[in-house]
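Bug #77: duplicate submission created two jobs. Keeping one. Sequence:
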Amino acid sequence: MKILHCADIHLDSAMQTHMDKDQAIQRNAEILKTFTRMIDYAKSHQIAVVLIAGDLFDRDRVTRRTVESVLDSIQSAPQIDFLYVSGNHDAKANAFLDKDIPENFKVFTNDWTTFDYGDVSISGIEMTKDNATTLYDQLPVQNNRINIVMLHGQIASNSGVDLVNLSLLKQKNIQYLALGHIHSYACDRIDENGIYCYPGCLEGRGFDECGPKGFVTIDTDTRNLSCTFIPFASRMLHRVNVDVSGAATNHAVYQKMKEAAADISKNDMVEFVLKGQTDFSSQIASEYLYSLIHNDYYFVKLKDEMKPAYDPDVYSKDISLKGEFIRLVMQNKDLSEEEKLQIIRTGLEALSDEEITV
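Kept job's structure:
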């Protein structure tokens, strides 16, 4: 039997930390489309069961349209069972309120429930403050069967809400622990009998979710289960560090940015982090750099971590407005070194008639 394991879809996320409203709406539409594409993949690859290990939605922001799209997609695949355990972001009771739930969509509650498929048993429970410490003692015993367990939480050495105490799941005849909560793919052993796996999120939403995203497939034909990560996101997110040291002009920095991101698809999302030391006289302006590169990719963010290199002696006798300005700032004992550098950079941008970076 083939099983698909996904988690942390976070449909209808706000995402306006990085994007404007229109971009967030478009990106949410793409994430929903990827979810429906995943169901098409399950249909065409003879998947029998899809495990959704929490955070299908993103808190209470979910729209009626999104919930109906999810349920319609699930209903379109009656040959597949969808097993869903709620995560800490789901607010699932509100999402499915007054909705007709397809027969093949099975939701775990705050008590252990087990679904059997041939010689495979899949057990799951929604973790709450009432059961977070006791659920390990109540785990259904599945001897002489392939035992899959679903939970949503962070692997930990102690018990609690959103914490999965791995030590209490050892020697419980678990061949595969299907987890959600961590947004990057990770797989490791529980004990000599089984493994645990985080499939990661289906699509990256911010630059803390860079790299390949997708889901995991499992084949239960062998008792020693292994998982295969399937990259599936419509776009990948990248954080690109660019050392601008030695670059004296905006054009030179732009060339360094293009070189650092040469292998990245134009359809992807990129955060450029500018690092290194630049001379005060270089007049590098991040706003101007953004105007040069923002059309080169689907979405671009620019983070300025450049450190101006300065030698106070260079400006100690410089007879110019720039020299006088720098001396005044550097002599201010109430400012930290970082504050001095930021003020000097902003002032020099103004003096050079550049876009001011604040």
